[in-house]
Every structure is written in C-alpha cells, then in structure tokens.
Amino acid sequence: MNASASPGDTSTPVPDKTAEAILDAASRRFLHYGYGKTTMSEIAGDCNMSPGNLYRYFPSKLDIAEAFVRRLRSDHLEELRKAAAAPGLSTADRLGAYFRTKLKLAYHRYHDRPKAYELSQEILKERISFASEWEAAEAMIIEDILNRGAEAGDLILQNPTRTARLLQDVFFRFTSSAIFFEGDFDGLASELDEVMELVLDGFAWRHAGFVREA
C-alpha cells in the first residue's frame, strides 16, 4: 500500500499500521536530524525492515516527507477551522481570529520546530502543486467566514471567492519567515491587528454604500 496522497488531495490519508509506523519513524528522524540528513536505509532500519520493503509503501523519501507535512498541515487546518467557528464571534472577530491563529501557527513552527518548518519549505519547492492545494484549502475557510458575514448582513460582497484570495494576498507578509525575526510574536500580532482594522474599514465603507471612483 502506498500511503502518500495524490497531488490533488488536501486531506491526510489514513495509512495502514505499517505505513503509519514508517511515517512515525521518519518523522522522528526528520524533526531531530533534518530531511537532508535522513536516509531511506535509516528509516527502514528504525522499522526493522529492508529498504526494498520500505519502497513498497513509499516510493521515495520525498513521498514520506510529503505525508509528514500533510499530517502537520491537516492539524494546522483544523486549528484554523476551530478559530473561525468559535461561537459568539462577530464577522470581524472571526476574520481576526483566523489570521491571528495562522500567524501563531507559522511563528511558533518556525521558532519551536525549525526542522518541520524547513521540511515544509522543501515540499513546497519540490512539489509546486502542494502550495496551491493548501492555499485553496485555507481560502475555503476564509470564504466561509465571508459568506456567513454576508448572510448576517455584516458584509456586502460581489465575489466571496475572489475576496478570500485577496485577503490571503493582504496578509501574506505574516506567513513569511522573513518577518519572524523583526520582533516578538506580540509585536507582529499587533501589526496584524492594525492591518485587519484597515481591511475592516474598507468593508465598512463598502457596506455604507461608498465606492471609490476609478
């Protein structure tokens, strides 16, 4: 059984017990030694199997790495969904909670689990479609927040799908490793909140019926 997911599948596949053991063993090595210093022979040895048998489950080390990152990203998506679906929040609070949670996950993964962050970047570089899959999955959560806001009368939207993508563009800075040494988390979160206020002002301006002339 090959436990790696198909390129178009953003879900985390459910591998059998042997594949799960392989993934667990590989994960420990990736997080301790890093992707580049881990070999298929070492992973096979940790699982008490031959390299040939290992290749029956995962055709390459990159396939194991992708399965590992998909597991991490699946947990990441679940955290974002929970933040966006918390009861009693206004539309503005839901958007703020979503993007603050995304910043928190990226910031702490970079600082607390650097090998996992490096591995994620390796997958994004080697398998370009992976980034598009996860951007689309996250955009769906944002779009759901926007649609709920429109239904509640908080927002006026012409194209929620396009608006969700544009919001990803606006907040892209807060997912880039380039900023993670500019300040501590609280400082970056405060900056994100200021950007969010500008976005919300724009929504409010449109809701009031004002449209900027071209």
Main attributes?
Tetracycline Repressor, domain 2, about 70% helix, disordered N terminus
Q: What can you tell me about this protein's structure?
A:
With 214 residues, the chain is mainly alpha-helical. It has a domain at 69-207: Tetracycline Repressor, domain 2 (Orthogonal Bundle). The protein contains nine helices and no strands. Helix 4 crosses helix 6 (114-126), helix 5 (91-112) runs antiparallel to helix 7 (128-151) and helix 6 crosses helix 7 (128-151). The protein is elongated and about 65 Å long.
The largest sheet, given as strand count, sense and whether it forms a barrel, is: none
- Portion of residues in beta strands equals under 5%
Any guess at the CATH architecture of the domain at 69-207?
A: Orthogonal Bundle
General form:
elongated
Radius of gyration: 20 Å
Give a brief rundown of this model.
Helices cover 70% and strands 0% of the residues. It is mainly alpha-helical and 214 residues long. Residues 1-12 have low confidence and may be disordered.
Strand-helix topology:
Layout: H1 17-33, H2 40-46, H3 51-57, H4 61-85, H5 91-112, H6 114-126, H7 128-151, H8 160-170, H9 185-207
